[in-house]
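User: Okay, second chain of the day. Same drill as before: sequence in, structure tokens out.
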Amino acid sequence: MHDGEIDKQRRRFLTTVATVVGGAGVAASTVPLISYMLPSATARALGAPIEIDISDIKPGELKIEKWQGKPIWILRRTKQELDDLPSLDSLLRDPDSSVQQQPPYAKNEYRSIKPEYLVLIGLCTHLGCSPKYLPDGQDILGPDWKGGFFCPCHGSEFDLAGRVYKGVPAPTNMVVPPYKFLSDTRILVGADTGTA
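Assistant: Same drill. Structure tokens below.
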């Protein structure tokens, strides 16, 4: 073999190695750039709408998710719980939801788009504590308790539509976030339906 042939082979080898290493370097440097451009899970939780699967919620169960750093509650109410709501009106501070704590399409007796599903920001309107879900049958608050939410911090009580009882520290009903149904089993919290 001539020295020229060895140099050509060596040159091809070095060119191939340099190309592979350079390509790997370019690929490695674009991964962080692309990752940087995509919103993180934290960023999505802080502001972007979130899609929630509600197919696994049984009647009487509460599901908790997070949006904008706040707990989002999805309660699937039973027929009995829905039937009991009007009987509580005289005990409530704002039974007709006159204070704007919900989108217009949720300003109804159920404070929801579909009566069966209640969607709330799970924070007390007094000082922002997270109330406890106490279904019917838990007579911690007395034998007449028909289910609802109780804030142990200062004693505020809310019914199963998130409406505040009279005589408690919380000044207003719990907040209903903007949301819409994508299907019978999925909702999007943070995006408004824009319809009544």
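The beta strands are 50-53, 62-67, 70-76, 117-121, 132-134, 148-151, 156-158, 179-181, 186-189.

User: Thanks, on to the next one.
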